[in-house]
Each structure stands twice: as structure tokens, then as C-alpha cells.
């Protein structure tokens, strides 16, 4: 597809990763973003897995990230009522990747790095406050986006060889095409809080990433460069505006944290497991959250979206026909989303939600047994760090995931 052009709708991390990759492959891109450029500090994802760092390293971004983030060398599974816990050592991955650790780096910081890289890339034209109001498939060889600039109200048509919807879970492109977003939403709501309080002072030997079970449901404690991020299940009766109070109460009862604990952020969210009925129609395709969303437990969402981007770059840069490239992309990446990413994230969520003491004790024992055996522990970390999937389904592969018993992919 050399010298052809792409229109990407959405200037988030996945859309800009795609734009940068396409430009460096000789494919000029226009990126349309309905929001402002301004940086917004949010509670969204912070986990970057080793194969994603490998891919971002190809774009020259990994060194700056590693110097400014938190490298996680041990992964903990703990319980509020049990003294024993399981800990897995990421150094077991040294022979499998140049980045043998899980990495915590806030999504908005990655977005800033990508924006700067795209600013310096002649083949990338990012246009903010530009909303796609209609998608035109009349000429399937050159699909068009009808764009309205939010300030002037002016409308114009942007046409290219390929149109990509990278515009998030509420994708305007997906909705304009009438593509169903198939799947389910978990009934319980969740809260995410952020605090500067040093949690290592209240939890013995606390690692940078720990997943906790308890009679009250899941709790995760994640150290990011800026603060500690805390995610927890909310009782069904808890109002969104009461999430901070509930969170403070729970942290007080578990760790003795003060009831007036200072919080940088407090938000609520629901967990979804969804994949678009198709990821493409002729010369239009979906990528990242526009194509699939999953439980955030385990930090797979942003990573799988970036993997989508590199896969699409590999296909479009080598394709004789855009339609064939997008059809194969759709088949491969949808199968990976359903049968690999959602399987792992679904099992993560189920394990974290366990409340009955006997089941929680059994989970900790099983994970401790895995951690005590280097071979089992390595296999486990290869799965949860997405290395296994990245090696099985590299960018441009024709391999399609098949439904199979995945074992403990938590």
C-alpha cells in the first residue's frame, strides 16, 4: 500500500501509534480527533506489558518511557484475611524478552509522547476538534469521512484508501456503520482511587502490583509514577458520589488508613467484555477499544489495542489490495480478542471476585505452588504478560486463534 493514504478517526494512544507506524511505512495519514489536544490526567490504564514495550521500542519511544515509569519485578496475589501470599518473579522472563518486567506508565503520558512523535513526523496530520458526522462507503475503494470542525461549523469530506475507527468504546465510526458491539456488561460497578499515601507503610512487603481478594470482593493496589492507584468492587447500593467515602472506609478497615485519606482521583466504572461483530467493511476497519473492550483486571486493553495497530501497519504496508488486508486483519484480531484477551481478562475478573474463604484459600495455595516451580511460574508469566499471545500472533500473521481450554491464564 506504499504511497497510499489513511484516515484515522481518534487521536488516542492506539490511533496515534497507528498513524506513526503507517507514516514510517510510507503511508501518509490524516488523524481526526473531536476533542481538544490538551492533556487530561485520568484514571485510565497504566500497564504496559513486555511485548508492547518491544513494539513501542521500534518507534523509538521505549527508552523515554522506561526512564520515567515503574518497572514491576514481582507480581503479588494476596488476601485480606490470609498471611501467606503468592509472588511471581518477572526475572524468569529474561530469556524471552529484552523487557523482563511489567511496566506502569500512565496512559496520558504515553499519549503525550506519541503526540510529540507525530508532531515531528511529516507524514502525519493530526486535526483536533474535528468530529466525524458521517461515514460514506459509496466508493468502497476510497471511503470518506464527513467532518465538521467544532469551532467554525464548517463541514468537509476527507477521503483515503483506508478509513480506520480508533475512536474508543463509543466509536462514531462503528455506530455509523451499524456494527453491533457484541458481548456483556458485568452487573457490579467498580471504583478507582488514587492517593499519594505510601501504602508500603501499611501492608507488609507490598510490591508495586498486588491483587487482593477479600470477603468484600476484589481490590488491586498498583504503583504508578505519580501515585498509588486502587481499584475495588462497589456494593450495588453505593451511589457514584459515595465511591470515595466507601473506598476510604474499606482502606481503613483493611490497612488502618486514615478516614480523611487524601485522594487525587476518584471515579466509578463498569466492566465490559465486548467485540464488534466484524472489525471491517470493505476499506473501513476498527481498532483498539472501537473494536473490542475487556475487563481491566490484568491491564490488557491498551496493550491489545497497540498490538492491533502494529498488525494493521504490517498488513497495509505489504498489501496489494486493501480489502483483502482488512478482511484478514478482522479475522485474526477479532479471534485474538475473543479467545485470548477476553479469556485471560475474564478469568482474572472471576478470580478477583471470589469472596468465599475456602475458595480464596485454595486460590492462594494454587498460585503459591505455581510460584514455587520455575517452569510453571515462567509459563504463567508468559501468559499474563501477553508474551505468549504476541509470539503466537505477531503483526501480519495469518494465524487465527482457536477456542481451546486455556488453563490458568490469569
Describe the overall structure.
By secondary structure, the chain is α+β, with helices and mostly antiparallel strands. The chain has 2 domains: 5-182 and 272-392, FAD/NAD(P)-binding domain, CATH 3.50.50.60; 186-271, 2-Layer Sandwich (Alpha-Beta Plaits). The protein is built from 11 helices and 20 strands. The protein has helices at residues 13-24, 50-58, 62-66, 107-119, 172-177, 243-255, 301-318, 322-353, 357-372, 374-384, 387-392, and strands at residues 5-9, 28-33, 47-48, 70-72, 74-79, 86-89, 102-104, 124-128, 130-136, 144-149, 155-159, 162-165, 181-195, 209-213, 219-223, 228-233, 265-276, 280-281, 284-286, 292-293. The strands form 4 sheets. Strands 6-5-14-15-16-13-17-20 form an 8-stranded mixed β-sheet. Strand 9 and strand 10 (144-149) form a beta hairpin. Helix 1 (13-24) packs parallel to helix 4, helix 1 packs parallel to helix 7 and helix 7 (301-318) runs antiparallel to helix 8. The chain is globular and about 65 Å long. Residues 405-410 have low confidence and may be disordered.
